[in-house]
Design brief:
Layout lengths: L5 E7 L4 H16 L8 E6 L5 H7 L7 H8 L1 E5 L5 H16 L17 E7 L6 H12 L6 E6 L6 H14 L7 E4 L1 H4 L1
Parallel strand pairs: 1-2, 1-4, 2-3, 4-5, 5-6
Helix pairs in contact: 4-5, 5-6
Length: 191
């Protein structure tokens, strides 16, 4: 399906409990209501090696629902390491392949996969100890140069001094990216 701009949502930490039971079901609810574009690509990125079909079975969505089936066709999985730039290069290449399938007529085959406009949102559903490495790798290897990039940090913060220190670490790490690129989500706000 051709469109003016591709949209790829990458869930970093996709094999984790919160991503499987909260993030993906929330995206499915948006899909059901028509609030996600039909051409969206959702890439799950995590360390556990598995095929797309195996990953789909772990997600808390109604698998017998035909609408869920259509949503899951938009969901792929990529195994890699959060602290390895090479893993994020592979992730970027996967995103470019998926995005290239959405090129509108008139965009030549010689054009880069995202040269016509590819937007990416990176949803970090990983422990705070991995934010710095993942943030560096995202910036150096996975962001698009032809559209907007957004980083969403998913973690509950603020219950004690230790969690407050984690929040400070996140702010330092995400300051590597312009404030227009970074968003923090407290799970208490969305549950």
């Amino acid at each position: 399906m051709a469109c003016a701009q591709a949209l790829t949502i990458v869930v970093v930490g996709a094999s984790g409990h919160l991503a499987r039971t909260k993030t993906y079901p929330a995206m499915f609810a948006l899909w059901q209501k028509g609030l996600l574009p039909k051409h969206v690509n959702v890439i799950g990125f995590a360390r556990t090696a598995m095929k797309d079909e195996e990953f789909h079975k772990t997600l808390k969505v109604p698998h017998s629902d035909p609408v869920a089936h259509e949503f899951l066709k938009r969901c792929t999985y990529f195994a890699g390491y959060y602290d390895k730039a090479d893993s994020f290069v592979g992730l970027r290449k996967m995103a470019e392949v998926l995005e290239s399938k959405q090129k509108p007529p008139g965009v030549g085959a010689s054009a880069a996969a995202g040269s016509w406009g590819a937007n990416r949102a990176f949803y970090l559903a990983i422990p705070p100890s991995l934010f710095a490495a993942a943030s560096r790798s995202l910036k150096s290897s996975a962001m698009t140069a032809t559209g907007w990039n957004r980083i969403v940090v998913e973690k509950p913060f603020g219950k004690d001094s230790a969690s407050s220190a984690e929040l400070s670490t996140v702010r330092r790490v995400t300051s590597r990216h312009p404030s227009s690129v970074t968003n923090n989500v407290d799970l208490c706000d969305v549950m």
